[in-house]
């Protein structure tokens, strides 16, 4: 118990010391475990002779750059933050916010994060309806996109998120304006008492603040009825680096990532590329070729890194077998000529609509022998496509 | 010369006798040549003992169905039309219309049709600006789509067709309402004196009529300044079978086929599938997920049979190396942070915008050693991204 607490405290401190995806720091944790890694990182114990080699081995670096000390650089990088370390204060802050620090040995830890390998976060800070647990990978769909979304993008997002929640999925997004907010909002609105967690917001800043400020009410609702989580500790500002790294968490937590709208350059594309890198399916929503907000999704479709998705059913297909509703996509509507052979098709087209004609005339018009015309008329009649009256044979319409 | 005339006359007659893609008829031509094939087809010479076996060999049919005579059935199929054969009249009609019958030995014959193998038409009926010749496969792009197109589809079609003509391509379509008409119209409007043939209409009916009637003016313009062509002889009505077969000609004549708008079921999808079957690239234009007229193009994108294309440049990329304009697609716009390393990115985000700060403060905020902060500030300053004043270091904006 004391040991578990010590690990939790160490991971919380490491999260404050290191930026997300600090590879040397993560290699240090992998080599020594979090408690000793923190001691080395803060200078309270020396690194030991073998450590530099061990880190290079974990990071798969060649000895070529050996003049440069990976660990020495890292220690200098972390040093300015050592004096401000106060993991107990951070743990207390989370408790006050009704949240916790989650570490890999906890039940709440999402196993899917292991796919990030060395890039797995040292800990997660979480608030929200944690008793329900974090939904499993195949129940999570990320919906991401432009902050300055269009009405079109908002409509698609709203329909898609609601449709996914109705099918039992949880909608993950980044809590930003535009597509993200619409996805969270619609997922909350579509939630039923029985649904469990229907939406999770993965933040690029500490959970003690609501960012962006304009989404405060929405983020409060998610913190109450869904889950908000971050890799960075309370008090952390949302920097560009943290946004980019946050995107990898969204991609790793979701079984499928869908980009609804994205400009030619967009953070949502970064999330999509993380997802593709993890081997997770990526969906992209098509839109007008004249909309700058669809240029990025079309780019994903064009370069083959995403599948075209137009509704929740198609997203659920990408997500795989979790869908239990048996809902189907676009229904095939049978046309008159479906299932007809070539001869019957020729005959059908040869049949006049108003005035009936003779078998011989039909044979000449359709280019068929009279024998085939007779047999074909029988088949068409049985399908209610041809009928005979005083004037001869003519077209009938299916009832 | 007399021999060439005899072949032309025979092919013209065969085109009237047989529907497009009449496999037994085409095998007969392959086995005996057009002149003798016509004699057999009309009963003026007997089929000979070996012919049935030869046809089966050409058609790769097993002897299993040998009780049924392929040729016997075909002869009965053709018989009702024999008495109306008048190839000289059809040749004269074409001459009167300023057109001709084109056969495979003619210079005008598009070599690309050979990719249809046995399905290559026995002849083509052509009208228009024939002295310019039929553009080569890699200069032809087919643009097809819904007859009941939306304003959106019409706009995309117009922009795309004009852009392709400006790049030196010829736009092929089917002369129908909607996307087809828009493609032809825009290609004619974009034509310059020097451009050669900029549009070709492939018809499902005889060239003695303009079908549909509402496109008469447009089709007259194409017949004057472009090319209209058909596989069926003058006087032939546009039946469903002929439309479907016409689609294979569009696909075979074009180096790329683009579907702009198509419903879930649409003739344009048939053209796309013909193109894919011939190994020709297919492009599909994305649109609103709420538009029934884009359901078919999204279906193509989703099942992987088409590449997402949003403008003429992207179509030209699909078409390959013919594009000589050097026009490029969407330009990359460089952002402030492009090309920065991770440390410089962290530093850039740590720089305050208004009030300058010290190196030590920057080191703590960015999580970098002071040495790296100094070096990084130098790099950012040289890119005009950082500047120093009395209060310390702060962010600058690129000029």
UniProtKB/TrEMBL annotation, chains A, B:
Recorded superkingdom: Bacteria
Domain Smf/DprA SLOG: 101-317
InterPro entries in alphabetical order: DprA (IPR003488), DrpA_SLOG (IPR057666)
Pfam families: DNA_processg_A
Family the UniProt entry places it in: Belongs to the DprA/Smf family.
Protein name: DNA processing protein DprA
The species this protein was found in: Arthrobacter mangrovi
């Amino acid at each position: 118990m004391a040991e578990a607490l010590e690990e939790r405290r160490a991971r919380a401190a490491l999260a404050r010391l290191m930026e997300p995806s600090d590879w040397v720091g993560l290699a240090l944790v992998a080599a020594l475990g979090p408690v000793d890694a923190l001691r080395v990182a803060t200078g309270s114990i020396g690194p030991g002779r073998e450590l530099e080699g061990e880190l290079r081995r974990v990071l798969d670096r060649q000895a070529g750059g050996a003049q440069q000390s990976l660990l020495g650089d890292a220690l200098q990088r972390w040093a300015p933050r050592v004096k401000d370390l106060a993991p107990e204060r951070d743990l207390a802050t989370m408790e006050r916010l009704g949240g916790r620090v989650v570490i890999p040995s906890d039940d709440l830890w999402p196993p899917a994060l292991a796919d990030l390998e060395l890039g797995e976060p040292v800990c997660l800070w979480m608030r929200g309806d944690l008793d329900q647990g974090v939904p499993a990978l195949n129940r999570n769909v990320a919906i991401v996109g432009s902050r300055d979304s269009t009405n079109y993008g908002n409509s698609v997002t709203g329909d898609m998120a609601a449709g996914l929640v109705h099918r039992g999925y949880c909608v993950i997004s980044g809590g930003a304006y535009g597509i993200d907010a619409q996805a969270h909002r619609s997922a909350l609105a579509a939630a039923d008492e029985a649904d469990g967690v229907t939406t999770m917001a993965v933040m690029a800043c500490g959970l003690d603040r609501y960012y962006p400020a304009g989404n405060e009410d929405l983020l409060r609702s998610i913190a109450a009825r869904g889950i908000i989580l971050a890799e960075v500790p309370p008090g952390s500002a949302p920097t560009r680096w943290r946004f980019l790294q946050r995107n990898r968490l969204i991609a790793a937590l979701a079984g499928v990532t869908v980009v609804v709208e994205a400009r030619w350059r967009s953070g949502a594309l970064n999330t999509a590329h993380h997802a593709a890198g993890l081997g997770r399916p990526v969906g992209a929503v098509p839109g007008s070729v004249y909309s700058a907000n669809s240029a990025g999704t079309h780019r994903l479709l064009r370069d083959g890194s995403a599948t075209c998705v137009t509704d929740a059913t198609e997203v659920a297909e990408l997500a795989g077998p979790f869908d239990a509703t048996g809902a189907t996509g676009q229904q095939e509507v049978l046309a008159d000529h479906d299932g007809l052979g070539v001869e019957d098709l020729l005959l059908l087209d040869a049949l006049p609509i108003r005035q009936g004609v003779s078998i011989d005339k039909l044979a000449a018009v359709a280019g068929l022998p009279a024998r085939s015309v007779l047999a074909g008329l029988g088949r068409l009649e049985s399908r209610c496509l041809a009928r005979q009256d005083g004037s001869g044979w003519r077209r009938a319409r299916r009832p």
